[in-house]
Design goal:
Blueprint: H1 3-13, H2 28-33, H3 40-71, H4 75-88, H5 92-112, H6 116-126, H7 134-144, H8 149-171, H9 176-185, H10 187-197, H11 210-220
Helix pairs in contact: 1-8, 3-4, 3-7, 3-8, 3-9, 3-10, 5-6, 5-7, 7-8, 8-9, 8-10
GO molecular function: nickel cation binding
Keywords: Chaperone, Nickel insertion
Pfam families: UreF (PF01730)
């Protein structure tokens, strides 16, 4: 990639990016409240499941489709991938969180970049013709910035894991060294999720993690919640 594309990928992966992902735990809060995640080993196992069963088969497939469509100026395919991702995301909180983060990222990108496709996509989202999921917006943003699709997928995995590790530090007695160790040990799972996602198209988004969906639904009704999801 060019230096500009590499630096753009760094910016999009930075926790300094104001998209609100620090407010979500994607069900982790409920796993901890139910004593299903009690230590670093449990957390690593859960994050590996997320990568293999949800992020890879759904978010990364949508990201890839949006990335390719953005490069070709095909907004209809971007929106189709966006709608499909929402359709296969069962937990209401997950859909809402992904759309809120996506809306913030899309607003930020339209402010920073003069790209007709971004503006047209934002119009579709505003008209409720597309949900504006974070993974899809990230796919469009990285595609237009000439960030290679594999690097964009790895960026998505890295951001997802670091976000949940940050949530875990607030919910568990998880030190910084343990968090970095988990991040390091999950590299093979991230790579595997990225590689497997390359074989699927929009119609083949198939996330399957039933317990995650059940606890996410349980979290929606929890009396006390630190995180939005």
């Amino acid at each position: 990639m060019t230096d500009a594309a590499t630096l753009e990928s760094f910016r999009l992966a930075d926790s300094f990016l104001p998209v609100g992902t620090y407010t979500v735990s994607y069900g982790l809060e409920q796993f901890i409240q139910d004593d299903r995640v009690e230590d670093a080993a449990d957390l690593k196992s859960l994050l590996s499941t997320y990568l293999r069963q949800q992020v890879g088969p759904a978010e990364l497939v949508a990201l890839r489709a949006a990335h390719a469509a953005a490069n070709g100026g095909d907004l209809d395919t971007v929106c189709r991938a966006d709608r499909r991702l929402s359709a296969v995301t069962l937990a209401a909180e997950f859909r809402e969180s992904a759309q809120q983060s996506g809306d913030r990222l899309l607003s930020l990108q339209t402010e920073l970049r003069e790209e007709a496709l971004l503006d047209r996509y934002a119009e579709r989202v505003d008209a409720d013709e597309a949900p504006g999921n974070y993974a899809v917006v990230l796919g469009v943003a990285t595609g237009l910035a000439d960030v290679a699709v594999r690097e964009a997928c790895l960026l998505c995995c890295h951001g997802f894991v670091t976000g949940l590790l940050g949530a875990a530090q607030r919910l568990l007695s998880l030190g910084h060294t343990d968090a970095q160790r988990i991040l390091d040990e999950l590299r093979p799972a991230m790579t595997a999720a990225v590689e497997k996602s390359a074989d699927n198209g929009i119609g083949e988004m198939t996330p399957f993690a039933p317990l995650v969906d059940v606890l996410a639904a349980e979290h929606e009704r929890a009396e006390r919640r630190l995180f939005a999801s």
